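Hi C.,

You asked whether I'd gotten around to modeling the 469-residue construct. I have! Everything is below, sequence then structure, no commentary in between.
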Amino acid sequence: MKAKTLFDKIWDDHVVYSIEDGPDILYIDQHYIHEVTSPQAFNGLEERGIPVFRPSRTLATADHNIPTKDQHLPIKDELSRLQVEKLTENCRKHNIRLFGLNHPDNGIVHVIGPELGFTKPGMTIVCGDSHTSTHGAFGTIAFGIGTSEVEMVLASQCLLQTKPMTMRITVNGDLNKGVTSKDIIMYIIAKLSSGGATGYFVEYCGNTIEKLSMEARMTICNMSIEMGARGGLIAPDNITFEYLKEHSKKVKQSDWESTVQQWKNLKSDAGVKFKREISITASEIKPMITFGTNPGMAIPVDGFIPGSGEMDDKGGDASFIKSLDYMGFKPGEQISGHTVDYVFLGSCTNGRIEDFRAFASIVKGRQKAPGITALLVPGSKKVEEQVKKEGLLKILNNAGFELRQPGCSSCLAMNEDKIPAGKYAVSTSNRNFEGRQGPGARTLLASPLTAAAAAITGKITNPVELMNN
C-alpha cells in the first residue's frame, strides 16, 4: 500500500466524486457559520427554494461584529444588529443550532467549536472565515470558504475543491524563555514569507510541536493562511485525546477507547514524501513582533527594522517603503523601546484561557502604563468565566485593566473596538494589514507575553525582561 500523508488520508476518505482533470467533490463533516458571511448564503437558498440539507452538521454563533461591552443592551450599530437578527431568524427557520449573543456558550466560532467538543480528529471542517484553519490542530482538514461556498455546503453538505499540495514543517528542540506558539508561527511566516506556502496544506510536526498544548497548537494552525497556505494541521496524540475527553460530552468508556484507537491511525505514514519539506530549529526563535503591513514582516522584539534589500517578503521595494511609511518606521531603527498606545489581547488566535494566563503572569503585581488603552477580550463566555474562576480577573483589575465581553473585537474592527488613525497597537490577533484594526491604525502583531510587556511599560519590550523579576 502506498504511503500517505495525514492530509491525503483525510482528504481521500471524504471524496464523494473526482472530476477527471478537475476538482474533487468533498464531503464536509462540520460546517461553522456566523452573522457576517451567512446571510447571503441563506438568501441564495431561499431564492432557489432549497432547504439546508443536513442542519445537524452546521453550528452557528454571533461573533464578528457584536459589541464587547453592554451585550445585554440592543446592538447600537444598525448593520450589525440586522446581521445578528438575520442569523437568529435563519437558524430558527432551518433548525440550526445557534450560540447567539448572551448564550452561555457564545464566543468566537474558532474558539467555541473546539471547547464545546464539536471539532474532532479526521474531520473536514469549513466556515465562511479564513481562520478556520485553527481546527487543524486536532488533525482535521479545516479551511475557510467564500459566501457562495457557504451556500453550497448548506445545500449539499459538499464542496467542489482542488486538492492542495502537501508541505511538512518540522520544528525540533527546546524553546527559549519567553517564546510561545505565536512566536513560532510568526518566525515561520517571516522565514517563508506571506506567500511562501501558497497552494499547500501544511502539516506541523517535530518534538517542539509535540510538547505544545492544544491551545498553542490552535494558534499555530490559525495563522497558517498568513503564509498563503490553504490550511495547517497537526496529527492528534495523547495531548489531543485528553483535551477532547475533557471538552466532549459524556461518553461510555468503551466507546471512547474505541474512538481513540481509530484516531491514533491519523498520522502520516513513515517514509511518505511531501511536496516540500521545511526544518526549523526551535532555539533560533526569539519573541517576535511585526513591523510592517503583512504578517511576514516580522523580526525579534529586540531586533532592528530591516531595509528593503534585507527581506524576501517585501513585494517590491516600493511596496516595502510604502509599508514602512504607513507604520512610521525607518530602516535600521530599533523596534524595542518604541512607544505604543493600545494593547489588544484576544481573537481566535490568542483569546483562550492559556493566553489570559500568560498575560496575567506578566502584569501580576505591576501597573498598566498610563498612556495605554487595553482591550482584553475573551474568546468565549467559557473563557470569560474561567478568567474569573482562576482569579485572573482580580490580577488584571489590580493592575489597572478591565475585562471586556467575548467577541472578535479589535481583530478586524467590525464593531466599536477600533484603533484610532496613527496609533500603535500591540495586538495578539493575526493580521496587520493597513486599516485592519481601524482606518489608519498601526498594528504590531505579537504574543500575549509581549503584549503584556507593552501594556506595563508603554513601549515595545522583550517580555523576558519582565519574567520572574
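If it helps when you're writing up: The chain has a mean pLDDT of 95.

Thanks,
B.
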